[in-house]
Amino acid sequence: MYLLAIVILYITLSIKFIDWKRWKDHYATIQFFIIGCLLYNVIFYQHTLWAYKSVTWDWLGHTLISIIFILIIIPIAIMFYLQYYPEGKKQVFYIFTWILYFTFLEFLFSRFGMFVYDNGWNVGWSFLFNIIMFTMLRLHDKRPVLALILSVPIIFILLIFFHPPLAELK
């Protein structure tokens, strides 16, 4: 039920606060994120670092919950993030607020058993990942080619640290 409540909340907030006439402005960045999430789910399929878990229905596993997050919740969050992105000195505070928000939600979900860590991943790694993610989302929105180029070594580093047998190379 929590998943349905989250979906309804995000959709309701998006109807009220997102300028949907500007959705094309951020469409490529949303695709960038979706592709990254889907790649994680494929590459780490047999070796997850984190996974969603239903506490109410056994049939509602990581794959279905992940698809709902990837296709509904996260695009809405990215639209909020990018449409309200400030200029000037407020940028650092703004990014840090989103990093804390996402890290706190993940921490909260993990405490209630709805988000599980595995294979060396933890909330600290998620915090660092969120720093990279929100920085890259903004960079992709403004300079997509640079963001794509920088993403390659970041992905490679994550693979070396967390994906066997690549993890054995470190």
Automatic annotation (TrEMBL):
What name goes with this protein? CBO0543 family protein
Question: Which residue ranges does UniProt annotate as crossing the membrane?
Answer: 30-52, 64-85, 91-109, 121-139, 145-162
Does the keyword Membrane belong to this entry?
yes
Q: Which InterPro entries match?
A: CBO0543-like
Specify the species.
Rossellomorea oryzaecorticis
Q: Which UniProt keywords apply?
A: Membrane, Transmembrane, Transmembrane helix
